[in-house]
Design goal:
Blueprint: E1 4-5, E2 9-10, E3 12-15, E4 18-23, E5 26-33, E6 36-43, H1 46-61
Antiparallel strand pairs: 1-2, 3-4, 4-5, 5-6
């Protein structure tokens, strides 16, 4: 049996390749990029989580970098400023 939240309905949703999960009062988005599972913390607003999931899914489908993507760099690689 699936759990439900009184305010937000179901505790999970899927938009394309992105799954949203409610854990406590925080929504997380899970998706795969380059064979790695990524999980982004979005916040308490389900509608905001759905919009971010749609944006990430569109970026995954068009093979552009997802919104939460980043590449770590060393301090000495930072531009001066």
């Amino acid at each position: 049996m699936k759990s439900t939240s009184k305010k937000n309905g179901k505790k999970t949703f899927r938009i394309g390749k992105v799954r949203g999960d409610l854990r406590g009062s925080v929504w997380y988005l899970t998706y795969h990029e380059n064979g790695k599972r990524l999980r982004a913390r979005v916040g308490a607003d389900k509608e905001q989580a759905r919009q971010m999931a749609a944006q990430i899914n569109a970026q995954l489908e068009s093979q552009t970098l997802p919104a939460f993507n980043f590449e770590p760099i060393r301090i000495d690689e930072l531009p001066p400023g």
